């Protein structure tokens, strides 16, 4: 165990730990990517509330509010990213929880990235992005 | 609830402020070996509760272990209860053990108070029985249910680890599987030898979470147990809280002492080992330094 991670554990047990909800909204069939991201986040010291596949936007948002998460990570495979991200963000607004950041990952065409950012998504991760970049961007949000 | 997880100071403040708010009627601790089906069983209990009391709220605290290396955690218990995730009468909170057992239990108490204040009639506190988390459950629950399933070779070993003592009831899940009746007989014998005197139906409820059998009887029987003696329950809850606060105080003192020891000069250890003075005199010195 490196010295750095030892120190991190010490700090984290004292201060507030960042909580991230990772889940898949919609009808995607498998969650390998989401599980992978959940693990790298855990290894970086975050608490990840993993909610699995085939969730509705309502389920994701109610869970996020109850768990008082700081960040929601949505994973998409089959093209529903714009529609469903919009719904999630609308529900967050309704629930007065816009202080929760949202990021997306998965099979998302480059052209849609600016559109997602416009509706309020903070970061978008497409296939091939490295662990280091994901962690860098997530760490930068806090 | 997040405040309650931050520090013991904040939890105590929270407990003070919430002391006049309603408390949950039933706080049920649920633990069991991995694979015993307890999260799924909890989901079934929630389902039944919602049917029985459509206007009441139920809270669930799901405790998962943190990585001792990174301090992070994957809190995945909620996944087995996701169908309740858009039911406003069900409040699910996932927490990690964060390596501090004393801290966990006080923080959990804080969360339970918030749930009570929100109007939760029943609170389930659920954790996997590994490490010492199942003992933490005993500190916050009115009643502890241990979930077991037949066919798990290590179940008997698991019971030897002290769970037989902290459990109030022992739920035999996966009752639909072969070997269940033999397991039931062995378990009953072992528990009787240990002094558990409850009537056997109450002591070892047999259910199948998968087939959704036995759940109403289980819950109704637990409720019956709670309908009597609410004064005694209040008294026991206060005693538990006292115990936790004492533990937190000694934990904080220990931390302070460790900081002082860190700052001591490097020949401190040599002094102690070479000296003829009893340890208690060194202790008095150190206590003076704490002031």
Give a verbal description of the structure.
The complex is a heterodimer of chains A (142) and B (291). Chain A has 142 residues and is of the alpha/beta class. Chain A has helices spanning 3-14, 32-43, 57-66, 81-94, 112-119, 131-140; strands at 19-23, 47-50, 71-76, 101-106, 123-125. Chain A has a five-stranded parallel β-sheet, sandwiched between helices. In chain A, helix 3 crosses helix 4 and helix 4 runs parallel beside helix 5 (112-119). The longest helix of chain A is centred in the middle third of the chain and has 14 residues, at 81-94. The model of chain A is unreliable at 1-14 (pLDDT under 50). Chain B has helices spanning 2-6, 8-17, 38-52, 101-118, 133-140, 155-166, 180-193, 200-203, 215-227, 230-263, 268-274, 279-290, and strands at residues 26-32, 57-64, 73-75, 90-96, 120-128, 143-148, 169-172. With 291 residues, chain B is an alpha/beta fold. Chain B has a six-stranded parallel β-sheet with strand order 4-2-5-1-6-7, with helices on both faces. In chain B, helix 10 (230-263) packs across helix 12. Chain A binds chain B through residues 1, 5, 8-9, 12-17, 38-39, 41-52, 55-56, 58-60, 62-63, 66-68, and chain B through 1-2, 5-7, 66-76, 78-79, 82, 85-86, 88, 91-94, 96, 98-100, 103. Strand 2 of chain A pairs parallel with strand 3 (73-75) of chain B.
Summarize the structure.
Chain A has 142 residues and is of the alpha/beta class.
For the record, the CATH architecture of chain A stands as 3-Layer(aba) Sandwich
Bulk shape of chain B: globular
User: Main β-sheet of chain A: number of strands, strand sense, barrel status?
Assistant: 5 strands, parallel
Spatial shape of chain A: globular
Structural class of chain A: alpha/beta
- What's the helix count of chain A? 6
Poorly predicted runs of chain B: none
Q: Biggest interface, which chains?
A: A-B, 34 and 31 residues
Instruction: Tell me which CATH architecture of the largest domain in chain B applies here.
Output: 3-Layer(aba) Sandwich
Order of neighbouring strands in the sheet with most strands of chain A: 2-1-3-4-5
